[in-house]
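Lab notebook, bench 4. Still working through the backlog of constructs that have no structural model yet. Next entry is a single chain of 204 residues. Request: give me the structure tokens for it.
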Amino acid sequence: MAGMSQIFARVRLAIRRTRRGVLWMGCAYALGLTVGMVSVHLGHQRSLAYRDRIVSKAQASSTILRYSDAHPVAAAALDFGSNLLGATLTAAAGWYAPAPFPLAIYRGWIGGIVSVDGHHRSRFRTMEGGLYYGLVVALQLVGYVLSGGAGVNLGLARTGTRPEYRGSRLLSVPTEAFRDAAWMFVLVIPIFALASALEFLWDV
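Model written out:
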């Protein structure tokens, strides 16, 4: 019990230290998501066409989707690994603090334009479809917001002089900032695992 309390306390500390980066990343993802959702629900043809292209490409070439029908657990595991890798690379890109923001806006926008189905009907037209879409996208974006925010914090710590980050450095970044980023992944990993499980194991 004491060990779990220490883990929770360290995660809370990491959240507090990285909160500025997390907030900024949250705004970037929210912007992209909102623009994407509004555009397709208003029938913007370029957004709808792009939605169709990326979905068609994924269905034709994605190993994850090929597994989804016969082996949904394997598909969920592969999707989890893909999201975790993407989040890790995004966090690493935070060494230059502005770098994750275009990625965040783009990912948010993609999440928004898939809020309609292949017939360009809103996924919110049914309660189950809206709940499925909302939960999966929300969990995925929360995972990316937390990891991306931790990455932005690396860049801020690299160029700043915050008292909690005094001490040794690695690649010009305080090692304590790297520790905070690692602790953030204690949250990110189960969030992505749950998102992937819902996406591929929930029979909508």
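Notes after review: The mean pLDDT is 95. Residues 2-201 form one domain. Flag for follow-up if needed.
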